[in-house]
Amino acid sequence: MHYDNKKRSEYLNKQLDKRGVASWGRASEIARRTGCSNATADAWLKGSLPKNIQMGINFADEFGLDFYEWSTGKSRGAFISESRLTELIHRCKNFEDKYNIDLSAKQMAALISMGESDEQSLETFMENLRTFLAK
Fold first, then answer.
1. Is the torsion defined by CA of 70, 4, 75, 19 positive or negative?
2. What is the rounded distance in angstroms from the CA atom of residue 128 to the CA atom of residue 2?
3. Each residue of 53-76: pLDDT tens digit?
4. What is the C-alpha separation between 30 and 22, in angstroms, rounded?
5. Phi, psi values for residue 25, rounded to 5°
6. For residues 39-76, b (16+ Cβ closer than 10 Å) or e, as one string?
7. How far apart are the first and last CA of the chain?
8. What is the pLDDT at residue 98?
9. Residue 7 near residue 73 (C-beta atoms within 8 A)
């Protein structure tokens, strides 16, 4: 099956949805955070590949994307960028501190994995966990 611009666009927008990047103003948000032009960000969202590979890698790192999967449609396996991992760890640690919960390393890893696959699921789960532990 050919990985074309349509499929690349679908993949990229789905990944950005998972990461909580609003669809309205998405190109502007990408441009603001990466330093590319709005036109470049818009082209990526429509499935074009980056002409400047380093800019594309910076974009992928900033938004926690697997550059290889974005560009080829094939995953090399589990992937999480350092910036995304750091963001998710901070969220888990803030959750621990705010609600005086002590997560084990295995529990934190599970939350990070959940957050990486679906941002909204992580938020819902942490809210439910907080409610459950408060009772």
1. positive
2. 41
3. 999 999 998 998 888 899 999 887
4. 11
5. 80, 15
6. ebbbbbbebeebeeeebbebbbeebbbbbebbbeeeee
7. 51
8. 86
9. yes
Note whether 112 and 122 are within 8 A (CB): no
Query: Which candidate, 35, 12, 41, 18, places its Cα nearest to that of 116?
Result: 18
Q: For residues 52 and 98, what is the distance between their CA atoms, to the nearest angstrom?
A: 42
Torsion sign (Cα): 33, 119, 11, 83: positive
Phi-psi label, residue 98: left if phi above 0, alpha if psi -120 to 50, beta otherwise: alpha
Q: In the numeric block, which tokens belong to residue 77?
A: 């396996």
pTM value is 0.61
Q: Are 49 and 8 in contact (CB under 8 A)?
A: yes
Give the Cα separation of 46 and 10 in Å (integer): 8
Cα(39)–Cα(95) distance, rounded to whole angstroms? Answer: 38
φ and ψ at 91, to 5 degrees?
A: -65, -45
Residue 28 has a pLDDT of 97
Task: Name the residue with tokens 């594309």.
Answer: 56
